Automatic annotation (TrEMBL):
<protein>
    <submittedName>
        <fullName>Ciliary neurotrophic factor</fullName>
    </submittedName>
</protein>
<dbReference type="InterPro" id="IPR000151">
    <property type="entry name" value="Ciliary_neurotrophic_fac_CNTF"/>
</dbReference>
<dbReference type="GO" id="GO:0043524">
    <property type="term" value="P:negative regulation of neuron apoptotic process"/>
</dbReference>
<dbReference type="GO" id="GO:0005127">
    <property type="term" value="F:ciliary neurotrophic factor receptor binding"/>
</dbReference>
<dbReference type="InterPro" id="IPR009079">
    <property type="entry name" value="4_helix_cytokine-like_core"/>
</dbReference>
<dbReference type="GO" id="GO:0070120">
    <property type="term" value="P:ciliary neurotrophic factor-mediated signaling pathway"/>
</dbReference>
Length: 199
């Protein structure tokens, strides 16, 4: 029995480390994508985009347990993927597919890596909670996007920045998880041991 708990804890630590490494790679790829997009659209450093998050999740709190932190992160990443998919479709629809270059290749790489990160955070959530992953409500997301060309370009850029923001948040959250998961496993084991000793 103890061996099974140890394997489960090791699996969670391994999954958290893998997810963290994927998030770090995604962050690097997002940085490249943002740079390629700025060059493609001739955006200068002083281009301003609207403040505020596009993704809607509960605010961070030190009171959140591991499950809630993971759910918050997973929910945000799911919303990011929906926004990213819509931005790609809208961009191709409004601006034309054109020839595939570095920008399009990088954009696809970011989308694929984000999907991989979602799979891993889903596995972590399942390991901590033991239930299927909840799908967040996408109501209220700006999935349609603007119709004026320049506003569309800013909207796409803002989505790329949102993915970058949540990728950085994922790195921070995931790097803090292995010790938290291990502590929760120990606490659960102690509770079970105490209950067994009482019988």
């Amino acid at each position: 029995m103890a061996d099974r708990r140890t394997r489960g804890s090791d699996l969670s630590r391994t999954t958290a480390a893998r997810a963290s490494a994927i998030a770090e790679q995604l962050h690097h790829e997002c940085s490249i994508l943002l740079e390629l997009y700025r060059k493609k659209e001739s955006f200068t450093a002083d281009v301003t985009v609207a403040d505020g998050r596009l993704v809607s999740v509960p605010p961070p709190s030190s009171q959140l347990d591991t499950r809630d932190k993971l759910w918050r992160l997973h929910s945000a990443l799911l919303q990011c993927r929906s926004l990213l998919e819509r931005a790609i479709a809208k961009e191709e629809e409004e601006l034309g597919g054109g020839k595939k270059g570095d920008y399009e290749t990088q954009r696809k790489m970011v989308k694929d890596r984000l999907s991989l990160l979602l799979i891993n955070t889903g596995e972590l959530l399942k390991a901590v909670d033991g239930t299927a992953v909840l799908t967040p409500n996408l109501e209220g997301l700006e999935l349609d996007g603007p119709t004026i060309l320049f506003e569309l370009k800013l909207w796409v850029y803002r989505i790329f920045r949102e993915v970058d923001y949540w990728t950085k948040t994922a790195i921070t959250t995931l790097q803090g998880l292995p010790s938290v998961i291990a502590k929760e496993r120990v606490r659960t084991t102690r509770v079970r041991s105490t209950r067994s000793a009482r019988r």
